[in-house]
Amino acid sequence: VKELKDAQVTIVGLGLMGASLAGALRGKCRRVVGVARRAESIEIALARGFVDSGTTDVAEGVCEADVVVLATPVRVILQQLPDIAPLLPEGCLLMDLGSTKGRIAVEMAQLPGHIQPLGGHPMCGKEKSGVEAADPALYKGCTFILSPLKRTSQEALTLGCAVAEAAGAHPLILEPERQDFLVATVSHLPYLLACALVATADATTSQDPAAWEVVATGFRSTSRLAGSDVTMMTDILLTNREEVLKALDTYQEHLGELIRLVDTADEEKMRQVLGVIRKTRREMYPASQQVIE
Amino acid sequence: VKELKDAQVTIVGLGLMGASLAGALRGKCRRVVGVARRAESIEIALARGFVDSGTTDVAEGVCEADVVVLATPVRVILQQLPDIAPLLPEGCLLMDLGSTKGRIAVEMAQLPGHIQPLGGHPMCGKEKSGVEAADPALYKGCTFILSPLKRTSQEALTLGCAVAEAAGAHPLILEPERQDFLVATVSHLPYLLACALVATADATTSQDPAAWEVVATGFRSTSRLAGSDVTMMTDILLTNREEVLKALDTYQEHLGELIRLVDTADEEKMRQVLGVIRKTRREMYPASQQVIE
After folding, report:
1. Dihedral over alpha carbons A92, A97, A98, A102 (to 10 degrees)
2. Beta-carbon separation of A287 and B128 below 8 A
3. pLDDT given for residue B293 in this prediction
4. Do A204 and B211 touch (CB under 8 A)?
5. CA distance linking residue B216 with residue A264, whole number of Å
6. Smallest Cα distance from A60 to chain B, Å
């Protein structure tokens, strides 16, 4: 395992996440190679300076790599792992950027012994997808979860941390199960709520032409995640299904309590419950940060 | 009824909404007078240049007003209307900034004949409350709903529009019932969803110290409204209870459908449903606007 500055990093998948990471790493390692299915994606990545070279041939792209990052949807990663691993040189660090880690960790554990596997999940993104939306600053300041396996060497983990840090992110080492539990509530649940809100507005108030004139910034914020990439989200929901269902269950209990408070018009209890929630939210995000929401 | 530039405008209630409106109108009318319960709020409003003068005595504050704006919570407005109306000069425009309009319209209809009543609801705000958080730019670009009664004269409505426009807002004339139906879905419902989300995270993932390190911007946006002022929101939920319950009912149907899709892992249907929702969300907010979310 080399130091990052001497390493060839190959990014497999030049969508929003992969192309942004490529652009962030370029110049900080020996060489960034992009692999994509579509030649057009490679052309754009080259034109925008995200990669040193690119290819549609996976074997060619990874054969001299020191680090390979799979930047494809979770279920594509699950298919790619056993196909790509045999193509990698001895000691190669094989990372991914998949949003759920449980099933990927199981698959990684079965890879040939000459590979150093490391799960990864950067907590950033935006509603637009594809290489066109890529931005090397995307990872700046975000938490980059790393899920090492028992077989992952300390050197490989250190190199993985260096990749995250070179992109401007903060590495956070977390077991796969614990990451899947946490993101179900802080990421996947908010997506589903936003979707249900958009569907509700679409079914009712959207019929009134005045509806969009009265939409305040609150609806916009609350519904924002409903614009997320469908392929990515379908993948996430299907590969983190159990944790998502548990989070939805807890959510429905809490929503049910709020509905009862409105229904019974119990003012005192309502004030108390909403007050505790407000205090919790404000503790989550100190005042100094609230302006940028 | 005078033109706005010749009018004395008295704002009753110097919280976030009232003090911001006062600051926005100052210099665009003859005189802005602030009325507050606490002398300290008046001192701050004077020091920050939001008002020309202030008083804790409502009668004194309104006796020479051409326009009076009640900038207090909805149920306080309901109490103030019959108390303040007799103190107003002949032909005085009496507006409010309450977030729900149905009950206020009923109360306004019963006021003495020498008053020109006009319901108002500016679609803006922020999570901080009080005169300390006031900002004369708060109303800029927002929709300012106006709900005239049958008895409201065209001149009074024109003056109300001038108040909204002087603050930088776009007036939108809407019947009280229609405004209450619309804001239940686009404003009150998102608040409750955000609250239930915060309560869910607080009950589960918050126990894990890593939870806040993995929070992406999505949770932040979706939960933002949970930081709203509790007095205002309690007031809103209690005075728009029926419409809010109807909106919650529709929301639960749509959330239920999404839960079934996750539970049954029906990929094809999931893609289709999430795809329609994504398209709807993107049509609501054209791409050019998405950067400022």
Report:
1. 50
2. yes
3. 36
4. no
5. 35
6. 33
Token pair recorded at residue A175: 């077991």
Is there a contact between B221 and B263 (Cβ–Cβ < 8 Å)? no
Does the CB of B272 have a partner CB in chain A at under 8 Å? Answer: no
DSSP string, B79-146: HHHHHHGGGSPTT-EEEE--S--HHHHHHHHTS-TT-EEEEEEES---S--SGGG--TTTTTT-EEEE
Q: Tokens at residue A240, please?
A: 């983190």
Token pair for B115: 């008053």
Under an 8 A CB cutoff, do A205 and B230 touch? no
Coil/strand/helix, residue A55: strand
Chain A environment of B193 (Cβ under 8 Å): 193, 196-197, 222, 255
Query: Residue B210: pLDDT band by 50, 70, 90 thresholds?
Result: confident
The C-alpha atoms of residue A293 and residue A222 are separated, in whole angstroms, by 11
Backbone angles phi, psi at A268, to 5 degrees: -65, -50
pLDDT value at position A4?
97
Helices (H), A114-240: 154-166, 176-183, 189-203, 211-214, 217-223, 230-239
For residue A1, how many C-alpha atoms fall within 13 Å in the half-sphere facing its CB?
Answer: 18
What are the residues whose beta carbons fall under 8 Å from the beta carbon of B28, sequence distance 6 or more?
Answer: B4, B5, B166
SS3 label, residue A248 = helix
Q: What angle do CA B204, A250, B127 make, to 5 degrees?
A: 75
> What is the ipTM metric for this complex?
0.85
Instruction: Quote the pTM value.
Output: 0.85
Side-chain-side CA neighbours of residue A110 (13 Å): 11
**Which pLDDT tens digit goes with each residue over B249-272?**
999 999 999 999 999 999 999 999
Mean pLDDT in chain A? 94
Proportion of chain A above pLDDT 70, given as a percent: 97
Does any CB of chain A come closer than 8 Å to the CB of residue B251?
yes
Cα four-point dihedral sign B243, B247, B253, B255:
negative
Q: Determine contact: A109 vs chain B, CB below 8 A.
A: no
- CB A18 within 8 Å of CB A124: no
pLDDT value of residue A1: 64
pLDDT in the model for residue B205: 81
Percent above pLDDT 70 for chain B:
97
pLDDT in tens, B110-151: 999 999 999 999 998 887 889 999 999 999 999 999 999 999
Taking Cα atoms as reference points, which of A269, A280, A255, A274 lies closest to residue B231?
A274
| Whether the Cβ atoms of residue A140 and residue A131 lie closer than 8 Å to each other | no
B255 in A contact zone (CB under 8 Å): yes
Task: Using an 8 Å CB-CB cutoff, list chain B residues near A192.
Answer: 255, 258-259, 262
Hey, how many other C-beta atoms are within 10 angstroms of the C-beta on B236? Answer: 25
Within an 8 Å CB–CB cutoff, is residue A258 touching chain B? yes
